[in-house]
Each structure stands twice: as structure tokens, then as C-alpha cells.
Amino acid sequence: MEEQLSLIDLILHASLTVQAVMALLVMASMLSWYMIIQRFIYFRNAREEMYSFEERFWSGIDLSQLYREGNEKASDGHAILGMESIFRAGFKEFSRLAQQSEMDSEAVLEGSRRAMRVAMMREEERLERHLAFLASVGSTSPYIGLFGTVWGIMHSFRGLANATQATLATVAPGISEALIATAMGLFAAIPAVLAYNRFAAKVEVFSNRYDTFVDEFSSILYRQAYALRARKGG
């Protein structure tokens, strides 16, 4: 308990500049932890929804029925995200273009792929949300803490000019106060860096899965487009 009180005492007696640095680092740490938890929950839900949709998609269900189910979920207020959002964008564009008799199969397929690519880019933007902030905290917090440490040490040594006797006990409290800023900088940076690396890897995994789905779904639409044109030609 005494160590905790002495630590708080050092913070309270630090110079205003060092205290401002500490407050900034504490705020950055709190925000980064909030975003880490938020991103963790988002990625967990996105993974579960992706697996659930893939199982439903490859179960042999009619694609029109799968699209209608998505409409029902959307009407109930359920957000359509991830792979299902990509599917809906591609299927909606395919259905719209396939009704136009002047459109050939290649044009229909290209329009569907373009719609899916746009939807995939939106999903990647959602996945990457807050990652830039975590990267900034991880890269800048140690330097902000170091600035507070350097400033605090300078302040301590300036105080020696008015001291009658320069001893370690004279400058030790000021140096200790300053070093706390470096510790806070590392405390804010390390979780942010670890979380950023982890989430960036997850974004890459999701992007690869989405890209693979676009190719697989395009193959299905390719066959349907030619079958549709063959029936109309007949």
C-alpha cells in the first residue's frame, strides 16, 4: 500500500508538463483499450456470422431464397455485414442485369463482380476501423513518455542551481517522477502494438476469405448467366 501511495505522491508532485504528458498517455491508453475490446467483439461476431452464412450458402439452398432471408433479417433491423453483404450485393446486381435482354452473359457477370468488389471494400473498411489509432498509439506513446522523462530530468537538474548541496537525494524524486512518464508510455504502447498486429492479421484472413468467396460465387453466377441466356435463346 505504501508503494502505491508513494507512486501517487510522485505523480502529484511532478511538474505540470510531466503531469500533462501522463494525462495524455492515460487517455490514450484508455481509448486504445476501449477500441481493443470493441474490435475483439466485432471480429468474434464477424467470424461467427461468416461461418454461419458459409454453412447456409453451401447447404444447397436456392440463392433466391437465401436472398429473401436476408431481406427478412434486414427488415427486422438486423445488420447485414461481412460475407452475406457481399453475396447480397452480387446477387442483387446479377438479378437486375439478367432481366435486361440486351445484356450478354459476360456483361452481367462483370457487373455482379464489380458490385461484390465494392461491397468487399466496404467490409474491409469496417474491419480496419480503429486500427490506425492503435498503430498511432503504439508508435508515438514511447516517444511522448520519453519527452516527459527528458523534461522532468531537465527540471530536476535546474533545481540543483538553487541547492546548497547537490546530492542524489536532491534529484532522485524528480528523476523518479520523470521515469514514470516513460513507464506510462510503454504501458500505453505495448498493448496497442500487440492488438494492432493481431487485428491486422485477422483483417488479412477475412479479406482472403471474402476474395475467395467472390471467385466461387462468380463461378456459380457464370453458370447461371449462360443457362439463363440459353433458355431465352431457345
Automatic annotation (TrEMBL):
Lyase keyword on record: no
The UniProt record lists the keyword Cell cycle: yes
Keyword terms, alphabetized: Cell cycle, Cell division, Cell inner membrane, Cell membrane, Membrane, Transmembrane, Transmembrane helix
Topology in the lipid bilayer: Multi-pass membrane protein
Residues that span the membrane, as ranges: 12-37, 131-154, 174-196
Record Pfam families: MotA_ExbB (PF01618)
GO terms classed as biological process: bacteriocin transport; cell division; protein import
Domain MotA/TolQ/ExbB proton channel as annotated: residue spans: 83-211
Main location: membrane
GO cellular component entries: plasma membrane
Superkingdom assignment: Bacteria
Similarity section: Belongs to the ExbB/TolQ family.
Function, in words: Part of the Tol-Pal system, which plays a role in outer membrane invagination during cell division and is important for maintaining outer membrane integrity.
PANTHER family from the UniProt entry: PROTEIN TOLQ, TOL-PAL SYSTEM PROTEIN TOLQ
Summary of subunit composition and partner proteins: The Tol-Pal system is composed of five core proteins: the inner membrane proteins TolA, TolQ and TolR, the periplasmic protein TolB and the outer membrane protein Pal. They form a network linking the inner and outer membranes and the peptidoglycan layer.
Official protein name in the record: Tol-Pal system protein TolQ
Organism: Halioglobus maricola
Gene that encodes it: tolQ
